[in-house]
Design a protein that fits this description.
- It is a single chain.
- With 393 residues, this protein is α/β, with parallel strands linked by helices.
- It folds into 3 domains: 13-76, Orthogonal Bundle (Arc Repressor Mutant, subunit A); 88-181 and 325-354, Response regulator (Rossmann fold), CATH 3.40.50; 189-319 and 359-391, 3-Layer(aba) Sandwich (Rossmann fold), CATH 3.40.50.
- Helices cover 37% and strands 17% of the residues.
- The protein is built from 11 helices and 16 strands.
- Strand 9, helix 8 (221-234) and strand 10 form a beta-alpha-beta unit.
- The longest helix has 16 residues, at 99-114.
- The chain is elongated and about 85 Å long.
Amino acid sequence: MELKVDTNLKLPLHHQIGEGILSQVRSGKFKSGELLFTEVGLSERFGISLGPIRQAVNELVSRGILERRRAKGVFLADAEGKTPLNRRITYITPDISHSFFGSMVRGGEHCAREQGYDIVISNTDFDRAKEAKLLTDLASTEPHIVVLCTTGGAGSRPAIERLVERGFIVVMIDSHFPGLNVDAVENDNVKIARDATEYLIGLGHRQIAFITVDESEALNAPLRRRGYQQAMERAGLTPLVAVIDYPGDKWEVDNERRTAEWLEGLNGNYPTACFVISDTNAVGVLRGLRKMNLQVPEDVSVIGCSDLDFARMLTAPLTTINQDSYGMGHTGVQIGIDRREGRLTGEPVVKVQPHRLVERMTTQRPNADENGPPAKSARRKGKSRARSDTVPA
């Protein structure tokens, strides 16, 4: 391939290179699927740095004119339309109305729109069978980018593997099947829990509970439990784990009831602080504490995780861990686009999204002896059928 570039022209170098490649392609000298050049070879032959060559190639790949093949070079795209860029993104989310997942979708949609991609959003309503069917049905469509925030159902994994085999670009957000060979954007769930627990320890708390969900249908819960236990053990403290959310529960009702029953079973030896696995579950915990006539944060400090919209709107705004769900969605879609347009090649990447602690009004230093339970002024109100959901660590 011949190229003519003039560094004295005001026209950007990558634009000159791109126009030169297009001129050669339009001349009819090359056949569809034929190797045109390698970027390193082109750089050495014409004395041009790799930067503008790669920029020119990226633009032509995005237009479906060229195809970059790993360790082989740059080829003329298939004239039958098998390789031209499909500018569609399917985004599958558990619940767009949920502020965490809705924010994630908004981040992804913004990224897609600003780069000229069409994005189709599908809800699974936390239904694993529905998620698996959506993924299975996608396999009959033209390969494109699929961004997925999975609920972790067993039927989803083989459906994802089938999409990858057919040439789809799959990016997983916030959850990931171990060993699955796709790009992912994840939280460091172990560190999230460790940071939350160490924050409470730093305030002076020694009796700290981890309030969680049943792990049979949760991908992140075991990781957050691990981070909590690590922090407690490093501080020489005894972990206390309570499960207040089971499959089929309604968090707005059952979390409150289960929290109250768990506390009642402690016979007044309440923790001075709780790290709750999510903001949603934290609402039930706050209501359960109130039902037991325990004040937050005077008697028990509470920290959640996610930083949902309502966390700052509560009467006592919730201290929590912000996971930047908007950024996760934006990053996930950008990875898919970069992979599709040839800027990202090689083995799958896993991006770990940064998090930060947001201190509000539900945490403070213990309002009692540092090594003792909350103030004895807190009295239980009434009786309920006690069933301890405390799980030995």
